[in-house]
C-alpha cells in the first residue's frame, strides 16, 4: 500500500532525537512499531527497510539511536571508519538511555490517532535487534522481531554489560528471531545459547544460510532472494500477533 513519510523530533532527557515516520496513506488505526536501525543510523538503506515495512500496514517510528552522542541527522557511512564510529557511539551510550528512548517512542505511538494503542510492537536489525529485544521487556509491546541481533549472547550493547538475555522471562508478548548461519557476530554456539535462554517464551526463530545484515541492500552481504523470504516470515509473524482483538 502507499505510504507517507515525515520527520519529527522527540526530546528525551534534554536530548533531541530525530524520528523517521512512515505510515499508510489509508486511514487507520494501524499497529504501531518502533523500528531500530543498525549502527549506521538512518541512512537510505535503513529508510528503505522502514518504508517497506510501513507499506505492509504499520505505523513505523524509527529513532536515531545515538542522538545523545552524535549531532541530529547524522548518518554514519557503512565503511571501516563508520564501523569504528558506530561501535564507539554505542559504547558511549548508557543502556538506560536506550531504554528511555524506547519508552518515549512507544508513548508517542500510543498517543497517535492513527495507531491502535493495543497493537504495539518492535523490530530491529543488528544492534537494533538487541534494542528491539529490550523494548520487548515493556508490557505494552505485543510482538517483537529481532533480525540478526548482536550482543544478546554476551551483553554487548552500550556502556557496561546489558542484562537483556537474563531478563528474557519478563517478555510477555510474542518474539521472533532471525539469524544467518554465516554471521560472524553470532556464531553457532552463541546462537544456540541465545535460543536456549528463550525456551519457554512465545518464540519462533528462523535460520537462513546468509551472512550478517543480508537484508540491507547496499553491501556485498545483501541477498535479495533470502531478504524477500525473510520479509515474508517477519510480516506473517507481525500480522498474526498484531491482528485486531476479537470482540
Structure description:
The protein is an alpha/beta fold and 247 residues long. It has a single domain (3-241), classed as Rossmann fold (3-Layer(aba) Sandwich). It contains six helices and eight strands, in the order E-E-E-H-E-H-H-E-H-E-E-H-E-H. An eight-stranded mixed beta sheet has the order 1-2-4-3-5-6-7-8, with helices on both faces. Helix 1 links the parallel strand 3 (30-36) and strand 4. The radius of gyration is 16 Å and the shape is globular.
List the helices and strands and how they pair.
Elements: E1 3-12, E2 15-24, E3 30-36, H1 44-54, E4 59-63, H2 80-91, H3 95-110, E5 115-125, H4 127-135, E6 141-147, E7 174-180, H5 188-197, E8 203-208, H6 224-241
Parallel strand pairs: 3-4, 3-5, 5-6, 6-7, 7-8
Antiparallel strand pairs: 1-2, 2-4
What features would you highlight for this structure?
247 residues; 6 helices; Rossmann fold; globular; eight-stranded mixed β-sheet
Amino acid at each position: 500500500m502507499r505510504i507517507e513519510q515525515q520527520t519529527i523530533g522527540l526530546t528525551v532527557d534534554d536530548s533531541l532525537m530525530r524520528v523517521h515516520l512512515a505510515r499508510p496513506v489509508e486511514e487507520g488505526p494501524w499497529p504501531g512499531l518502533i523500528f531500530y536501525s543498525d549502527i549506521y543510523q538512518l541512512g537510505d538503506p535503513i529508510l528503505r527497510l522502514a518504508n517497506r515495512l510501513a507499506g505492509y500496514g504499520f505505523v513505523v517510528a524509527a529513532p536515531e539511536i545515538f542522538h545523545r552522542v552524535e549531532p541530529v541527522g547524522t548518518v554514519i557511512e557503512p565503511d571501516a571508519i563508520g564501523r569504528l564510529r558506530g561501535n564507539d557511539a554505542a559504547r558511549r551510550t548508557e543502556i538506560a538511555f536506550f531504554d528511555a528512548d524506547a519508552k518515549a517512542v512507544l508513548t508517542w505511538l500510543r498517543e497517535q490517532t492513527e495507531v491502535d494503542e493495543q497493537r504495539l510492537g518492535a523490530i530491529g536489525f543488528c544492534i537494533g535487534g538487541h534494542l528491539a529485544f529490550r523494548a520487548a521487556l515493556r508490557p505494552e509491546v505485543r510482538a517483537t522481531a529481532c533480525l540478526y541481533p548482536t550482543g544478546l549472547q554476551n551483553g554487548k550493547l552500550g556502556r557496561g554489560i546489558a542484562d537483556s538475555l537474563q531478563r528474557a522471562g519478563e517478555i510477555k508478548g510474542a518474539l521472533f528471531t532471525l539469524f544467518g548461519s554465516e554471521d560472524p557476530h553470532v556464531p553457532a554456539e552463541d546462537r544456540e545459547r541465545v535460543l536456549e535462554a528463550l525456551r519457554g517464551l512465545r518464540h519462533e526463530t528462523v535460520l537462513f544460510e546468509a551472512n550478517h545484515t543480508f537484508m540491507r541492500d547496499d553491501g556485498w552481504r545483501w541477498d535479495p532472494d533470502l531478504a524477500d523470504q525473510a520479509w515474508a516470515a517477519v510480516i506473517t509473524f507481525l500480522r498474526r500477533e498484531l491482528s485486531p482483538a476479537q470482540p
